[in-house]
Structures are given as structure tokens and as C-alpha cells.
Design brief:
The structure is a homodimer. The first copy, chain A, is an alpha/beta fold. Chain A folds into two domains: 173 residues, Rossmann fold; 104 residues, 6-phosphogluconate dehydrogenase C-terminal fold. Helices cover 51% and strands 12% of the residues of chain A. A six-stranded parallel β-sheet of chain A has the order 3-2-1-4-5-6, with helices on both faces. A three-stranded mixed β-sheet of chain A has the order 7-8-9, covered by helices on one side. In chain A, α2 links the parallel β2 and β3. At the A-B interface, α7, α8, α9, α10 and α11 of A face α7, α8, α9, α10 and α11 of B.
């Protein structure tokens, strides 16, 4: 990729900060300007050398940048894109890191209008259990999958610039339609989060919750780790990806009903067969993957 | 506890082997005799110094022992207890490590008959992702919860001997009724395993399973780790604890229906409230717990 003169990061947290640090280390950017509605985050980012300049507004940050990375909670995306759209140069490129893509594309079309062709929707599959720019690091995206979901209207050079940036910092880029992205992540991320939230909230509401949890072992702990994720973020993801998530929930409910019937009937071979299919499939997952986070 | 002259371990695997090693290190036992239907496991256990003597049968191992630890798959429990019952001394004590307790107690009552008062049902909440005596270690139970579920007919001195043995090797012993045990572990262990098996088996059956799993992140990985557990073991646990597990499944299904309705209605505050309850509860779990295993 060509070296960027200025990267603008809107939302200077774990993801935005790590992206800036990694691009800088890769020698792919000269200057980084940041904006965050939390001024202390910007101050910290400046002190840590993650950003060179703290802007006073989204517009100020985006103005003059070659690439604008929007790394804010999905519910803030519309307002941010509106300000970015009116302030960027004609040749600049915008991308985001949101966990759902269909809704983001609809929002971007509305808010960016004639600049919509410069927007490349993105989703890096990386994160940590910590958040904030203080946790940012230049290795966060090394080996991580990054999904880009350009529209037919998206400019090819914009897609290539964003792809190049992710690849420069170790990302493994895949391109798919927004609907396909949302279907895939409903299955492998949004549904599991919902299932974990449902289990723990059900147990937590019981009178003997403390006793129950006192006997929870490592298996329970791993299974429910994602239930400690940000409720605000997952509320938004669940509602933004509602259609795909409801479909996944219904498929899952049907499978759970199959398991229930096998147990009820005492069908040992049937139960073992399904469990075996699960184990074989689970074991095929490559080991050593980075532990996940609310940001997936 | 008084020092044991001879411990008999029936089933020389991870749990049985670790129990023997830990008791020996604690100076709580003089000799260990082992029996396993897999003769190579016994040979390895002898080479590793986990057992002193390899017996040719369950009866031979149990004969003359002060304490008999039954650490075999639950489906083998009946046959093992039958042989133990006819061969042990009158004052000897028997215990087990099975993950379900109601069914084990019923089996023990049938098989041990007049020796039933000497049987102390037990369940150590410990394990690893590995199995076999080669993975055994004397620290496995340090800090682990151990549940004992004696019957009204169980001799008090037998309970105290088993409690003393677990405490000597670092276990934190709790006593409860078998039905209570099965209810608690249906909720915090058996149900989560079933939910994970159901999720992975459903995804695995799809045509695009490989693509889906290729985008799975660390959250999915943790959530589904328990789906790589032994299908034989979990098939047996699910069927042995059928009543409690079906009740938990139905409670869970009801909670999932609540989540589904909130998403369907777009009820953001309701969704966030439940997710918050889950997060608060999940965060109350003590950190640093040992990672779990199929043996929980």
C-alpha cells in the first residue's frame, strides 16, 4: 500500500489505538490525528504516542486525512459518519470496525451520501478482555481475520487501500457481502454471546445463585466468559443484527429440542452420535487462536 | 485422618492416579494397589510409582484395603461395586468420583447390600483437558471443591475417613444430599456441556461449516471448549441425571424465549438489563480457578 500521510482515528480505544500503533510501526503512516468524546482518552493516547494530534471534533480530525478509521460503538456510528462525510477530502477513504455490517452499510448510505463510495465497511476479528487505549498494542491484529463488506457502489481503490492497511499490520482479509457477514457472525459470535448471557442471567436470578456458582468449575467459567462482555455493546449488536440472530436462535432451539428428546427417550446412541459430531468439529478448530473479547 | 495402610484404586487414570499420588505425598497412605481393565495403564502407573501393586481383578485390589476409590466411567460402576462389595473387609470404606450421584447411590444400594453403609459417594470438581495416568499429579485437587453425598444409612466414621483423605490433599469438602448435588451440577455443569454440544453439532451439520468455523474467534473457542469433552462420558452423565437435566433445559429454554422476545420487540432496555445481570454475576466468580475438563 502507499504510505498514508494522515490517519484519523475516531474513537481512540483498544481497536482504534492498536490500529494506529500497528500502522505506524509498519511504516505505513506518517501522522495520526485522533478524536474521542472522552478527552482523557485522547490525552492518554497523546502521552502514549498513539496519536500525534488530539482533534476537537470529528470534523476536525477527518479533515485532511487520507484514511478515517471509525472505531466507536455502533450506536454512535450515524452521527460520526455524518460529520466525517461533510469534512473529508474527495479522495479520502473511510472504514469502520463494527461487529455488524448490514445496518452499518444502510447508515453509511444515508449519512455519507455522495461520499458513500469512499466507505469500506470492515470488521477485524480481534480483541481482548481489556479495553481502552491503555490496552492498545501494535500486535493486536497480527494473524487476525478481517472481514470487509464493500457495496457495489464502493470504489475499488478505497477497498484496496483498506485491504492494504490491514494486511500491512498482519490482518488476513476476507471480502464478503454484508448480509453474509451478518449471517456468519450471528452463528459463530452473536448467538454464543446470547446463549451465555441467557444461562448466567437465569442462574443469577435464582435464590441459591451464590451456592450454584460456588460449585462452578473451569468448564462453566470458560463457557460463560463471554457473558462478562459489555451489555451495551451486545444489546446493540443483537438489535442491529436482529433478523439473522433470530434465525440462528430458532435453528439452535430446534437442535436443543433434538437433544432434549434424545435425553427424554434415553437414546444413548443418538446422543453419543451428536456429541461425537460436535467433538470432531470442535477439535478441528486450529489451536492457539487469540482469546476473544467483547469486540469480536 | 489416620494413616491408611492400603489404598485400592479401581480405575488408574487421571483422577485415580492423582488421588493416590497426592495421598502418598501427604504421608496419608503406606501402600497403593491398583486395578484397571487396561493393563497398559496399570503398567504405566507402576512404572511411574503411582501404584505399588497391580492387581489382577477388582476383587483382588479391594481385598485387604482400608479405602477403595472407584474412579471408573459411571456405566462401569455397578459391576465394580459388586466385586468390591464381596471382597472388602468389614471395616473398609468405599468412595467414588462420579459426576452424578443419585443414580450412583441407587446402584451402590443394590450392589453393595450390607456393605452400603461403608460407601461414601463423592465428586471432586477437578480435572484437566488431558486424561490418563500419565497426566496424573499430586496437586490436582489442591483447592478443589469435593462434594460428598452420604445417605442416612452411611456410617459416620466412613464419611469422616473420606473427608479426611480429601482434606489431606487440599480438597474443600462440602456435604449435601445426592438430589441436591445432581440439581446443582445439572445447572452449572451438565446443562452448559449440553448447550455447547448442541451449538457445535448444529453448526457442524451445515454445508458451510468449515467457512463458519474459519471465522470463529476466541469467544467461540472458549464457549465451545467443553464440546470437545468425551461423548461417552457426557452421554452417560446426561442420561444418569436425566430428570434434573431436563428441568434445567426447560428453565433455560424459557429464559432463551425471554431473550428472543426482547430482541424481536427491539426492547433495548430489557435486553441490557438481563445482560447486565449476567455480567455482574459472571464477574463475581473468583478468578484464577483451575480450567475445567470432561471430568467435572
Amino acid at each position: 500500500m502507499r504510505r498514508l500521510k494522515t490517519l484519523a482515528v475516531i474513537g481512540v480505544g483498544l481497536i482504534g489505538g492498536s490500529f494506529a500503533m500497528a500502522l505506524r510501526r509498519a511504516g505505513a503512516v506518517t501522522g495520526v490525528v485522533g478524536y474521542d468524546r472522552d478527552s482523557s482518552a485522547m490525552q492518554l493516547a497523546t502521552e502514549l504516542g498513539v496519536i500525534d494530534t488530539a482533534a476537537d471534533s470529528v470534523s476536525e480530525a477527518a479533515s485532511g486525512a487520507d484514511l478515517v478509521l471509525v472505531a466507536v460503538p455502533v450506536r454512535a456510528t450515524a452521527a460520526v459518519l455524518r460529520d466525517v462525510g461533510i469534512s473529508i477530502d474527495a479522495g479520502a477513504v473511510i472504514t469502520d470496525v463494527g461487529s455488524t455490517k448490514g445496518e452499518v452499510v444502510r447508515t453509511a448510505r444515508n449519512e455519507l451520501r455522495e461520499r458513500f463510495a469512499r466507505f469500506v465497511p470492515g470488521h477485524p476479528i480481534a480483541g481482548r478482555e481489556t479495553s481502552g487505549v491503555e490496552s492498545a498494542n501494535a500486535d493486536l491484529f497480527r494473524g487476525a481475520r478481517v472481514v470487509l463488506t464493500p457495496d457495489e457502489a464502493t470504489a475499488a481503490d478505497a477497498v484496496e487501500l483498506v485491504r492494504g492497511a490491514w494486511e500491512a499490520i498482519g490482518g488476513r482479509v476476507a471480502v464478503m457481502a454484508p448480509e453474509e457477514h451478518d449471517r456468519v457472525f450471528a452463528a459463530v459470535s452473536h448467538l454464543p454471546h446470547l446463549l451465555a448471557f441467557a444461562l448466567v442471567s437465569e442462574l443469577a436470578a435464582r435464590e441459591d445463585a451464590a451456592e450454584l456458582l460456588g460449585f462452578a468449575g473451569g468448564g462453566f467459567r470458560d463457557f460463560t466468559r463471554i457473558a462478562a462482555s459489555s451489555p451495551e455493546m451486545w444489546r446493540d449488536i443483537a438489535l442491529q443484527n436482529r433478523a439473522a440472530l433470530l434465525e440462528e436462535l430458532d435453528r439452535y432451539g430446534a437442535q436443543l429440542a433434538v437433544f432434549r428428546a434424545l435425553i427424554d427417550k434415553g437414546d444413548a446412541p443418538g446422543l453419543e452420535r451428536l456429541m461425537n459430531e460436535a467433538r470432531t468439529s470442535r477439535e478441528s478448530l486450529k489451536p492457539g487462536m487469540r482469546r476473544g473479547s467483547p469486540l469480536e
